[in-house]
Amino acid sequence: MMQKNIDNIIAQSNDLRWQIGDEFHDNLAEGIYADAAEIVKASVHKPNENNRLRLDAKIDKIITSKTWGFPLMFLILAVVLWLTIVGANYPSSMLADLLLETIHPALKGYASTLGIPWWLDGFLIDGVYLAVAWVIAVMLPPMAIFFPLFTLLEDFGYLPRVAFNLDHLFKLSGAHGKQALTMSMGFGCNAAGVVATRIIDSPRERLIAIITNNFSLCNGRWPTQILIATIFIGAVVPSSFAGIASLGAVIGIAVLGICFMFLVSWALSKTVLKGEVSTFNLELPPYRPPRFWKTLYTSLIDRTLIVLWRAIVFAAPAGAVIWLISNIYVGDVSVAAWLIQSLDGFGFLLGLNGVILVAYIVAIPANEIVIPTILMLTVLVTGVSGGEGAGVMFELDSVNATGDLLRAGGWTLLTAVNLMLFSLLHNPCSTTIYTIYKETKSAKWTVVASILPVILGFVVTFLVAQVWRLLM
Amino acid sequence: MEVKPKSACDSCAHFNAAGLKKLGVNTKAFDHVIALAGNPNTGKSTVFNALTGLRQHTGNWPGKTVTRAEGAFEYNSEKYKLVDLPGTYSLLSTSEDEEVARNFILFGRPTVTVIVVDASRLERNLNLVLQILEITDRAVLCLNLMDEAKRNHIEINTRTLARDLGIPVVPTSARYNEGIPELIQTISEVAKGTIVCKPHRIKNIPKNIEKAVEHLSTEIKKEYPNMPNSRWIAFRLLEGDQHIIELLKSGEFEEYAL
Amino acid sequence: MNTYNPLVALVIFFGLSLLAYLLLRPHKGWIWLIKKGSHSNDKIIVEDILKRLYHNENAGKHLNVNDIVRTMRQNDKMVIESIDVMVNQGLIRMEGDVVKLTKLGSEYALRIIRAHRLWERYLAEKTGFSKSEWHELAERKEHELSMDETNRLAYKLGNPQYDPHGDPIPTNTGKMAKLKGVPVSELQVNTIGRIINIKDKPDIIYKQILAENIHIGSIIRVVEKSATRIVFHSEGEAFKLAPILAGNITVSILEKDLSYEEDVSRLNILKKNETAKIIGISKEIRGESRRRLLDLGFVKGAEVSIDLLNPLGEPKAYLIKGTSIALRNNQASKILIKK
């Protein structure tokens, strides 16, 4: 009985829809706004119709001007990145000193006095602890600087203007202007960049922003780029230009990343994402002076610590795996050595080597531990003296010593260039992959976002290696 | 069923500061559920933080809070759970955040819905307010960012506004904690039924649509006599909202309509 | 590594890439073709013949077997076989040389047309595919939708009466609103009309019309007519079309006193420091995009002015109901204003 009536109501509503036609939504929206206008007329008194603050208009005029808009934007981005990278050096080395140089030996000493078996001690302290400590030391300081700065700009209202200024460029590649921000956020951390895509309210453009965020060089990868560029790129030019050359190389890689971002965005919007709904609108909110301390606090809690926590959760098992593969032996060789051997051929084809590929496989959880892993594995396979034992990641104090070790591992300029390229173009770290899954709730897009960059990385490094070998 | 317009001064005298306890994220046992709705960029999250003592990030961005945040406070020994809904311009579209907000107000059955609006942009914000008033009849309008409105020399007569909307209106500047005590007091009075709302219903729609809405709404009322938002359901049916149609078919509305 | 040679490696790589491209390329890739081939091609031919007959009979033209074979882009033998099958199934009958639809056949044809137009409507409202792709996608989908699926689709879309080109959609009982329009090419100078239909066939002409940025729902006034071109004003712009293009645009003629407003223009033409009133949003903006704009306050009667110009030209920010909202030019060009 009841059900029949409800079916009846639905049937009636269908007939009525047919009678009313397509105009219903328009009429309703217009009606609501007409009511709103009447109500406002009765109770609100405005001095003049145009109620935009004069100060706001002035700021906007400068920020979006043809002359100043873009220089200002690049200046601000450069300052933020400079503060992040340079400013993070000091706390990073302090943290490294504390966690790696002081606490790690102390823990080891403590463990041996307690008589803990070597494998447990290695697994927990050399594996899990060391990986987590490394991630904290490398990741925390830049994020603690980058996110508050970014959040201050966001709260002030500057970022929507950046999206406004840049939208046309992004439109050309089928993306949304707000992707400029999620991309910049990716320079801090890709996982945070992926979360930030929530501000893009058009399904197609949001997916594009999520899938291409990994092309922003995140702060876990900056140190790798800088180290390799300093050792290998700086060495090929006269020493007075070494600094500039290596800096140029790193910036070149970051810019290349942006180019790939545009290219892949364009390709996605023209192919697989063609049918996704696409809308555009961008509100330019009034400027509001940010509350400095509060912003600092909330961005630290909301962004930095959450991301750091996720990274730690993923890094811990990675540390364990790294220790295990170096210490578990099958026959005469450790699993790590066996893996390196079997990947060496493929690595050579890409202008890389087995050590790098194994390091990238085990370091999926966090880009921060790639270099320490590479160093440890290089010692493991070459037998060069150095390091602290199988499965114990380490870094050398001097850049020269690192260079010597890598060259002893067979590295050339080609290896360095391709490592820099591969560090840009490989799968996102597992924190980011997990975040992509949470944001898209789709296994398909998560797989695309994870596989696509690594395929690109293979293709690009492969081509570079072949052409290099043909020419050199 | 008289409407009692509530201006800030009416309630300050009653506000019992000693009875307020901000409970942060402790949202276990509670007596009332309060939904917090509003456009993006109206300082909704600031109001949320001011009420709960939490420090949710408040970005100067539309669409920041995509998932709903929850918090709680205790006032005069009654516990209130506060749910911060995603900031939306409207409830008529099909985007994810609007769906979250719409479903919560419709089915979450909040005791009171607090609608945060930007005092300087009232007309635009009323779009959402009027839609919410079609769904629920227990609401409070939080006229936020009064400081900015004053700087723009915008004057708002809260009494006429409350009369026209049929719900209490509380002016606030949540950034400076101004008006928050009055807001809490008003929420508690609406929750307890001391203030009875008689919300505005959308008037300016063409005759043929109004007739269709009337007709459907009466039919729905026959099935569910206690449904407070039959007009809204009629709107959604005319819009062809599959979600609502499925719910009606599956009979799940009976639970909500009690 | 002895056999390794970078050149060989490159050749192998490009060879594999080419192979992958040939295999996987959509619509023309081998895998695609194999998949398509295994589908019942016969059904598609039968349905396409029915459609062709229906459209021609509606236009008062009759086709013979030769005409059909000639116009179908299929293997001739298969088409002739299909015609035989169709006669046996009672979908068509032969009257001498002429092929005619039976009642059963024309019902079937209407079902296909219904599926096609509904799917176009769906693509327009619920997806991001561009206008120029709707027809081709619907051409494929119309053969895949069962009657039940078609009805469910119609229901989901609110049983629409017209497809996005302005063509009527047959109801599930086979009823179809008649188009009572006149092609623009036949209009006299000074006639005022509203565009109600833009034919999506042939493809070349349709794409030219799209490039002119002419939309359904626009009101036009013819100002010049000659054998070589037709000029009309619409929404603040002048359009010059060749008769063959104009013939594919249908308008319903409006009474003169239903004032045509010469000063109606589009939001993208608004200049800095000008204020205008919004008259409406073009029907070309559909689905989610349309709802968004309405929600943001771009409703009839709202006042709008330019708030900020963009260093790159677009998007521009418009001040509407006290807030600055940036829109791209292709959106703004579909919002009608009166200065």
TrEMBL record, chain C:
Signal peptide: none annotated. Keywords: Iron, Membrane, Transmembrane, Transmembrane helix. InterPro entries: DtxR_MntR_Metal-Reg, Fe-transptr_FeoA-like, Fe_dep_repressor, Fe_dep_repressor_sf, FeoA_core_dom, Iron_dep_repressor, Transcriptional_repressor_C, WH-like_DNA-bd_sf. It comes from the Bacteria. SUPFAM superfamilies: C-terminal domain of transcriptional repressors, Iron-dependent repressor protein, dimerization domain, Winged helix' DNA-binding domain. The chain crosses the membrane at residues 6-24. It holds the Pfam family FeoA. Residues 182-253, 265-339 form the Ferrous iron transporter FeoA-like domain. This is DtxR family transcriptional regulator. The lineage of its organism: Bacteria, Pseudomonadati, Bacteroidota, Flavobacteriia, Flavobacteriales.
